[in-house]
Amino acid sequence: MATHCEGAICVCVVCILCFQTVESQEGWFGPNKEFKCHCESNCSSDGTCLGNGKCARGWFGLKCQHQDLTILENTVTTPNVSLLTDRDDRTCMNISGQTVVITFNRTYVFTWLRATVNDSASLPGLTVQFSKTTSMTSKLECQNQKNFLVDNSTLDIQCDLTEAIQTVIITGTGRTSLCSLYINGGRNVALKQRTWESSDYSEPVAGKFDASKAVDGNTSSDFNGGLSCSHTNDSDPRPMWSVNFPLSEITRYVLYNRDDSNRNRLAKFVLSGEDSAIQKFGYIDASDTGIPVYIVTDPAKHNLTQVKISTTQFVTLCEVEIYGECIAGTYMTAGLQCTNCPATCPNSCHLDSGSCSVCFGHSNPPACSL
User: Fold this and answer.
1) pLDDT digits (tens, 9 = 90+) for 30-69
2) Where are the domains of the chain?
3) Which of 92, 108, 145, 204 is the most exposed place for a label (fewest CB within 10 A)?
4) Cβ-proximal residues to 192 (8 Å cutoff; 6+ apart), any chain
């Protein structure tokens, strides 16, 4: 018997002749080994999780490529229940008439969440609200809510918010028993993509600190020990680093700086997000000394294909992660490429499968107007 898992759906196939699954090499998969394996065990050459079929903690969705914000450091869930983040859909908590509050240690851009319940009839009873701060005195509603069924007990809830939020509030009605919860942080669209820098710093033994080292998946901030950081030359009059990637809706940038006495070299950097050589997003660092990790959010969710980072003296980056999704009207195929949504819902479909949204209390999906 062979088991194939796609997201939260597992299909068992009994076969007489089954071909041996080829494992990915060194934790990477894809035609050019451009995708990182985030499975609890290893993954196959196409990214399917082997072993128990589970994603590693902190990841979920198609080929485990979506980062889960619920387990980020210093994130607080009230009530404090580990049942919702243990990746086990058999352990559940009753939230009938109760509220589950997830509070981050900073603001993030919300796009969608995934909830699994033990009774499919309770899925329509889930309500999602937000707050821009840790206080719940002023709540934001889920605008233009769309519901996507992953399977009979799992629902993805998508909201269009124009502001960054710090608190997610989930309320259950009736007899809602919530088993698993994931809040989407996006896919790292910069990983192993095409990079460039205006000059390369090099050392006789360590070699060249070229631009690709900033998107190699290694977040070590040890410049000399890790040898996984990029660095422009000290004689470069206009130092710059850039990365190109397929058109994506970007929500967050994470920059890992070197964590030593030269950390200030990245201070006052300028980040520019572009598409077709037109700047759509900009950010200027206000730090005088540089910090170990920068997190920059874009609540407007601009569609971009290139990001540039420049400074006045050096550009040195130990890792650049750029989180986003396929743009509106497209979804991610099994090969992790974005393609157009089906004709039945051309403007918005499920990001991992292309399926159309479902209606609770309406008879005409995906419009949900009757």
Assistant:
1) 998 999 999 998 999 999 999 989 999 999 999 999 999 9
2) 27-56, 68-188, 195-326
3) 204
4) 32, 33, 34, 35, 215, 216, 217
